[in-house]
Amino acid sequence: MPPPRPDTVKYKIHHHTVYRYAEPVRRSVHEVRLEPRSGPLQTVHRWQLVAPGNPSAARDGFGNIVHNFTVAGPTGTISIEASGEVEVLPPHGDLDRDGHHAFCDAPPPGESRVSPLYFLGSTPLTSAPPEMQAFAAPFLAAGHEIPALLALAQGIAERVRYKPNTTDVGTSAAEAFSLGSGVCQDQAQVMVAACRALGIPARYVSGYFYDPAAIEMASHAWADVCLDPAREVWCSVDITHGCLTDERHIRLAVGRDYASAAPVRGILEGGSGETLEVDVSITPLFT
């Protein structure tokens, strides 16, 4: 592994998830997207995932690293721990006329992925009702250059105000847009839904955002928008913070919506009375 470059930021990350159950789980099957991959925006220097059983790793059609494991049970607790070091690379790649950076995310030799055009199709979580299309259309009437996408992101952040505990992981973009509030997941899905409805490929991104002033760290979400499907050129827009992603963003997974990029998904037999504890720590190792 090459030594870190002096103009990058390297983070030490620890993500611990614990599920507890009033009634023991008899058997469960889990799918986990908690290992970041190296790519044009970051380099993963080391990573490990600790989970029950013997997790198997594979790549999905989006290029994510996916772990699967089965818990034979019975158990009242399921713990998943992911940790490692990720170096976030400085902006590079294509520049638009305003000096904004885009990046190419074509698969490396030997790896197959879905076409960017696959991210044109809506899902139950990312369908755009007529009122959302009417809201977004003026922002992109002259094209979907990066300044227009940033303006749309700002418009969405004002229309879907950040307000915790008003939505959950099953809330659709249409529901959050109608409600007028939500969290980063909802804002990202509204951005994705709006772009797709106007014929622009867009995908949901899960990851982390480093904020030195934050009392508690948490997972974050934003959107990738495809600027050139033929060349697989994208830009990555953080709707919540109104910016392109930068040295504060660490990517975990991409998908068509939250459900296909969720950090943890599972099917359980038994296990009623579930409670969830998540602890995330992000420490910069140098700047």
TrEMBL record:
The keyword Zinc does not apply. Keywords: Hydrolase, Protease. InterPro entries: Bac_transglu_N (IPR013589), Papain-like_cys_pep_sf (IPR038765), Transglutaminase-like (IPR002931). It holds the Pfam family Transglut_core. The keyword Transcription regulation does not apply. GO terms for molecular function: peptidase activity. Residues 176-241 form the Transglutaminase-like domain. GO terms for biological process: proteolysis. This is Transglutaminase family protein.
